[in-house]
Write a sequence for this structure.
């Protein structure tokens, strides 16, 4: 549930029994990172605070050992480990983690360095390897992840957290842009023209356009027949005024902006082996006409192995605007042949119409 005011946006996050269902969400995780950066993680409810700190450590150690924990961004939670380990109060894991913290602090003091810029010599790496072995033995016997989750479930003091929304920092996987007011698109036909022209700008890719229906819900999906879209290229160039994916087409920037101003959500997908990644373009929730581009892993599994790429619009409703579907369908069927790399338009699924 979100509550907005003129200057601030306050969000209420329910604490679910499975913390991973919300902890790493696009809304809540930037808030967690802001607390971590300012050294204020203890502002979280105690059960969530302990869970987050120890979950970060468990993930890193099980993936690459204590050395990986100390050399990745995860080390930002190092100063929290001893307190959280004591709260966990496990007869095997708590002494190990406190020993790890004390040993590391002793090494840092001896080397006169801080954890943010420390270099670890061969001797200390051997010590860390011994900690790894002790940790893996405990994990084998007790399942560390379940120990941490059990603490979270058994120590609820509040049912929700209220926090001021935090804007995720820009990175290789997160970018923002603002659509100029003068090119905002509110017309269905103009938006569909822009959709077709954006597909056309990926000139090396041939597309099949599907009107996907599931009862009242429908959306437009364009499926790549040959080649795949480059999601990194989309992240890096979507908002570049002089850029076109074909390298030839003028006006493509305006078409891209109009497309994502009309549709609240545009999604690009691309499979890489058994993984599928997406780039989602949607409202940032912070500035007028401001959009957020987020690249993320969508899923892992054999079902993704034979998938190529696609472009999807937001879900729309037949009931909310019964004439809109017919307009989109008729316009696509009438005009798709004007674009040499768009091969067909077809309907799929069941719908109430």
């Amino acid at each position: 549930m979100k509550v907005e005011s003129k200057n601030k946006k306050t969000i209420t996050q329910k604490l679910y029994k499975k913390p991973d269902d919300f902890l790493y969400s696009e809304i809540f995780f930037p808030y967690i990172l802001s607390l971590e950066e300012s050294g204020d993680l203890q502002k979280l409810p105690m059960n969530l605070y302990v869970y987050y700190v120890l979950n970060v450590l468990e993930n890193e150690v099980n993936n690459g050992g204590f050395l990986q924990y100390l050399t990745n961004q995860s080390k930002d939670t190092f100063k929290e480990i001893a307190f959280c380990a004591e709260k966990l109060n496990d007869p095997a894991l708590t002494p190990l983690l406190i020993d790890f913290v004390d040993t590391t602090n002793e090494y840092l003091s001896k080397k006169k360095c801080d954890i943010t810029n420390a270099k670890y010599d061969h001797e200390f790496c051997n010590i860390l390897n011994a900690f790894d072995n002790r940790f893996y033995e405990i994990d084998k016997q007790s399942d560390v992840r379940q120990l941490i989750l059990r603490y979270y479930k058994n120590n609820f003091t509040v049912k929700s957290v209220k926090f001021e929304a935090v804007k995720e920092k820009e990175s290789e996987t997160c970018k923002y842009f603002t659509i100029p007011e003068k090119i905002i698109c509110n017309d269905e036909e103009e938006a569909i023209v822009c959709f077709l022209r954006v597909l056309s700008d990926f000139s090396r890719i041939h597309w099949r356009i599907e009107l996907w229906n599931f009862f009242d819900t429908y959306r437009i999906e364009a499926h790549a027949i040959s080649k795949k879209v480059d999601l990194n290229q989309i992240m890096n160039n979507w908002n570049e005024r002089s850029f076109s994916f074909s390298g030839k087409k003028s006006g493509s920037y305006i078409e891209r902006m109009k497309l994502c101003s009309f549709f609240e959500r545009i999604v690009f997908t691309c499979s890489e082996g058994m993984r599928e990644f997406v780039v989602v373009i949607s409202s940032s929730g912070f500035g007028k006409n401001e959009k957020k581009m987020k690249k993320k892993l969508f899923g892992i599994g054999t079902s993704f192995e034979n998938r190529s790429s696609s472009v999807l619009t937001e879900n729309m409703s037949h009931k909310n605007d019964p004439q809109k579907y017919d307009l989109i369908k008729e316009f696509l069927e009438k005009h798709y042949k004007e674009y040499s790399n768009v091969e067909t338009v077809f309907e799929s699924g069941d719908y109430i119409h």
About this structure: Residues 46-71 form the longest helix (26 residues). Residues 237 and 243 are 7 Å apart (CA to CA).
